[in-house]
Amino acid sequence: MPQVLKIGQLAQAAGVSAKTIRYYEQVGVLPLANRTVAGYRQYAEQSLHRLLFIRRARTLGLSLQQLKSLTAALDDGPRATVRPRLLGLVREQLSAVQQQISDLHCFRQQLEQVVQRLLAPPPADHSAGCRCLEMDDAATHGDNGRGPAREKREHSSRRARTASRERSRFAT
User: Fold this and answer.
1) Which domain holds residue 58?
2) What digits encode the pLDDT tens for the residues 115-132?
3) Are 154 and 162 in contact (CB under 8 A)?
4) Disulfide engineering: 5 pairs with which of 43, 79, 157, 170, CB 3.0-4.6 Å?
Protein backbone atom coordinates (compact mmCIF):
# COMPACT_ATOMS: atom_id res chain seq x y z
CA MET A 1 0.00 0.00 0.00
CA PRO A 2 1.45 3.40 -0.94
CA GLN A 3 2.48 5.64 1.91
CA VAL A 4 0.39 8.75 2.51
CA LEU A 5 2.21 11.79 3.89
CA LYS A 6 0.89 14.83 5.68
CA ILE A 7 2.27 18.22 4.66
CA GLY A 8 4.71 18.36 7.57
CA GLN A 9 6.05 14.91 6.77
CA LEU A 10 6.40 15.79 3.09
CA ALA A 11 8.13 19.05 3.96
CA GLN A 12 10.61 17.30 6.22
CA ALA A 13 11.31 14.52 3.72
CA ALA A 14 11.90 17.03 0.90
CA GLY A 15 13.82 19.55 2.99
CA VAL A 16 11.43 22.44 2.34
CA SER A 17 8.88 24.26 4.44
CA ALA A 18 5.15 23.53 4.45
CA LYS A 19 4.66 27.11 3.28
CA THR A 20 6.80 26.35 0.20
CA ILE A 21 4.67 23.30 -0.58
CA ARG A 22 1.47 25.34 -0.32
CA TYR A 23 3.01 28.00 -2.57
CA TYR A 24 4.10 25.43 -5.16
CA GLU A 25 0.53 24.10 -5.20
CA GLN A 26 -0.82 27.64 -5.57
CA VAL A 27 1.37 28.47 -8.59
CA GLY A 28 0.77 25.09 -10.20
CA VAL A 29 4.17 23.39 -10.11
CA LEU A 30 2.95 20.84 -7.58
CA PRO A 31 -0.49 19.24 -8.02
CA LEU A 32 -3.10 20.02 -5.41
CA ALA A 33 -3.12 17.49 -2.62
CA ASN A 34 -5.99 15.21 -1.80
CA ARG A 35 -7.76 16.21 1.38
CA THR A 36 -9.15 14.26 4.29
CA VAL A 37 -12.71 14.85 5.49
CA ALA A 38 -11.20 17.16 8.10
CA GLY A 39 -9.40 19.14 5.37
CA TYR A 40 -5.84 17.92 5.99
CA ARG A 41 -3.62 17.59 2.94
CA GLN A 42 -2.53 14.09 2.00
CA TYR A 43 0.34 13.41 -0.39
CA ALA A 44 1.38 10.27 -2.19
CA GLU A 45 5.03 9.28 -2.50
CA GLN A 46 4.90 10.62 -6.08
CA SER A 47 4.50 14.12 -4.61
CA LEU A 48 7.79 13.68 -2.76
CA HIS A 49 9.55 12.77 -6.01
CA ARG A 50 7.98 15.75 -7.77
CA LEU A 51 8.95 18.08 -4.94
CA LEU A 52 12.55 16.84 -4.98
CA PHE A 53 12.64 17.36 -8.77
CA ILE A 54 11.34 20.93 -8.33
CA ARG A 55 13.84 21.63 -5.57
CA ARG A 56 16.79 20.40 -7.66
CA ALA A 57 15.60 22.38 -10.68
CA ARG A 58 15.24 25.54 -8.57
CA THR A 59 18.77 25.02 -7.26
CA LEU A 60 19.92 25.00 -10.90
CA GLY A 61 18.20 28.36 -11.40
CA LEU A 62 15.15 27.28 -13.36
CA SER A 63 12.20 29.62 -12.93
CA LEU A 64 8.82 28.65 -11.57
CA GLN A 65 7.28 29.37 -14.97
CA GLN A 66 9.71 26.97 -16.62
CA LEU A 67 8.96 24.37 -13.97
CA LYS A 68 5.23 24.84 -14.40
CA SER A 69 5.62 24.02 -18.07
CA LEU A 70 7.82 21.01 -17.35
CA THR A 71 5.60 19.60 -14.63
CA ALA A 72 2.53 20.05 -16.83
CA ALA A 73 4.30 17.98 -19.46
CA LEU A 74 5.05 15.35 -16.82
CA ASP A 75 1.35 15.18 -15.98
CA ASP A 76 -0.17 15.41 -19.45
CA GLY A 77 2.20 13.92 -21.96
CA PRO A 78 4.73 11.22 -22.47
CA ARG A 79 7.65 11.63 -20.10
CA ALA A 80 10.07 11.28 -23.01
CA THR A 81 9.17 14.82 -24.11
CA VAL A 82 10.32 16.30 -20.80
CA ARG A 83 13.96 15.27 -21.06
CA PRO A 84 14.79 17.26 -24.25
CA ARG A 85 12.93 20.29 -22.89
CA LEU A 86 14.82 20.05 -19.62
CA LEU A 87 18.09 19.71 -21.51
CA GLY A 88 17.33 22.90 -23.43
CA LEU A 89 16.52 24.81 -20.23
CA VAL A 90 19.65 23.59 -18.48
CA ARG A 91 21.75 24.54 -21.51
CA GLU A 92 20.24 28.03 -21.48
CA GLN A 93 21.05 28.34 -17.79
CA LEU A 94 24.61 27.12 -18.39
CA SER A 95 25.04 29.69 -21.15
CA ALA A 96 23.78 32.45 -18.85
CA VAL A 97 26.20 31.36 -16.12
CA GLN A 98 29.09 31.30 -18.59
CA GLN A 99 28.18 34.85 -19.65
CA GLN A 100 28.05 35.94 -16.00
CA ILE A 101 31.49 34.44 -15.43
CA SER A 102 32.82 36.30 -18.45
CA ASP A 103 31.25 39.53 -17.23
CA LEU A 104 32.71 38.99 -13.77
CA HIS A 105 36.18 38.47 -15.24
CA CYS A 106 35.84 41.80 -17.05
CA PHE A 107 34.60 43.44 -13.86
CA ARG A 108 37.55 41.97 -11.97
CA GLN A 109 39.95 43.48 -14.52
CA GLN A 110 38.29 46.85 -14.05
CA LEU A 111 38.59 46.64 -10.28
CA GLU A 112 42.23 45.58 -10.49
CA GLN A 113 42.95 48.51 -12.79
CA VAL A 114 41.34 50.94 -10.34
CA VAL A 115 43.28 49.40 -7.44
CA GLN A 116 46.53 49.93 -9.36
CA ARG A 117 45.62 53.55 -10.01
CA LEU A 118 44.76 54.10 -6.38
CA LEU A 119 48.05 52.52 -5.25
CA ALA A 120 50.10 54.70 -7.62
CA PRO A 121 51.27 58.05 -6.34
CA PRO A 122 48.78 60.82 -7.20
CA PRO A 123 49.75 63.16 -10.02
CA ALA A 124 51.15 66.53 -9.05
CA ASP A 125 48.60 68.35 -11.20
CA HIS A 126 45.04 67.90 -9.91
CA SER A 127 43.50 70.40 -12.33
CA ALA A 128 41.71 67.66 -14.28
CA GLY A 129 40.09 66.29 -11.10
CA CYS A 130 40.33 62.80 -9.75
CA ARG A 131 40.86 60.39 -12.61
CA CYS A 132 41.60 57.33 -10.49
CA LEU A 133 38.30 55.66 -11.40
CA GLU A 134 38.77 56.03 -15.14
CA MET A 135 39.50 52.87 -17.07
CA ASP A 136 41.15 51.96 -20.33
CA ASP A 137 38.87 51.30 -23.29
CA ALA A 138 39.80 47.62 -23.24
CA ALA A 139 38.56 47.26 -19.69
CA THR A 140 35.28 49.12 -20.25
CA HIS A 141 34.13 47.12 -23.29
CA GLY A 142 33.02 43.53 -23.25
CA ASP A 143 34.10 40.82 -25.62
CA ASN A 144 34.26 41.85 -29.28
CA GLY A 145 33.58 45.49 -28.35
CA ARG A 146 29.85 44.88 -27.86
CA GLY A 147 29.46 47.79 -25.46
CA PRO A 148 30.16 48.73 -21.90
CA ALA A 149 30.82 45.72 -19.73
CA ARG A 150 29.18 47.55 -16.86
CA GLU A 151 25.74 47.36 -18.46
CA LYS A 152 26.12 43.63 -19.11
CA ARG A 153 27.41 43.10 -15.58
CA GLU A 154 24.50 44.99 -14.06
CA HIS A 155 22.01 42.98 -16.12
CA SER A 156 23.70 39.68 -15.24
CA SER A 157 24.05 40.74 -11.64
CA ARG A 158 20.33 41.56 -11.42
CA ARG A 159 19.49 38.20 -12.99
CA ALA A 160 21.78 36.38 -10.57
CA ARG A 161 20.39 38.26 -7.54
CA THR A 162 16.82 37.52 -8.61
CA ALA A 163 17.56 33.83 -9.14
CA SER A 164 19.40 33.66 -5.82
CA ARG A 165 16.50 35.34 -3.98
CA GLU A 166 14.00 32.94 -5.56
CA ARG A 167 16.12 29.92 -4.68
CA SER A 168 16.56 31.00 -1.08
CA ARG A 169 12.93 32.04 -0.73
CA PHE A 170 11.37 28.86 -2.06
CA ALA A 171 14.00 26.19 -1.46
CA THR A 172 13.83 26.41 2.31
Assistant:
1) 4-83
2) 998 888 877 777 777 777
3) no
4) 43
